[in-house]
Amino acid sequence: MSDPAAPAAASATGREIWIEKYRPQRLSDIHGQEEIVERLQSYIEQDDVPHLLFSGPAGVGKTTASTAIAREIYGEDWRGNFLELNASDQRGIDVVRDRIKGFARSSFGGEFRIVFLDEADSLTSDAQAALRRTMEQFSDNTRFILSCNYTSKIIDPIQSRCAVFRFSPLSDEAVAEQVREIAVAEGIEITDDGVEALVYAAAGDMRRAINSLQAAATTGEVVDEEAVYAITATARPEAIEGMITDALDGDFTRARATLDSLLTETGMAGGDVIDQIHRSVWEFGLSEREAVRLMERVGEADYRIAEGANEQVQLEALLASLSLSE
To answer: Is-above-0.90 flag for pTM?
Structure first.
């Protein structure tokens, strides 16, 4: 793809954050969550929006869906009828009692207003209990949209008052489609292997894919595989596969050298190496026994690293255990 405006577009890539510039404005613009979008649109069309609970990993459309609902209900006046709070910053009971109650009381004209509480699973138990009572008290004129990563951390009385929507990681096709659309809009030349690398690095997170695209676009004229892996500190899948295969074949020295390169030259964190191994286990062509053995070692290393153990020591121990004959 060639565009005479490409140099000018490339020079302007840092002037605006693309995840905001290209954030979908309407529900129908959201990629990869078609079933959820369809259900939410039916609520709006029937003018019967309940309290909502959105759960799922980062970058899959939870916040975007919330703002899109407000835009479709209120139009240009949506900001005045939409209160957004981040519970990870304001975790105490006072936030629920003060800011949310003050906003809920100020509704007018018989219409309901929307309170969006992001990262609601960060609220303390007392704050969630206060929120439950507030939801009851202002149910006539306020709708709550709660966003979280894990519904298990939300108390049952709140869950039972909400329609629960579970957002899944975005498909490779959805991420690739959005990346190509943005590349065309910005006049960026991107190769097919560059798109594949962005999709792989994103792992279902649209926000990460778009941020990576913007960063890669500032490094050169063409966004290709090499540029993407350089700016995302992500290992090529073949490097991970080679490291594990060498370990399973008993060549610990070679596997350790690959690991050292990933940690020191690529700049990867130990947890990222674990994540990539886990994502790719079933793509290595291993026998079922070898795959099970690898998963057992990965789980042990992940736990130890999460508990504060030295990352390099644990990853080398993982490779050593794979190299030992049973």
So the answer is: no
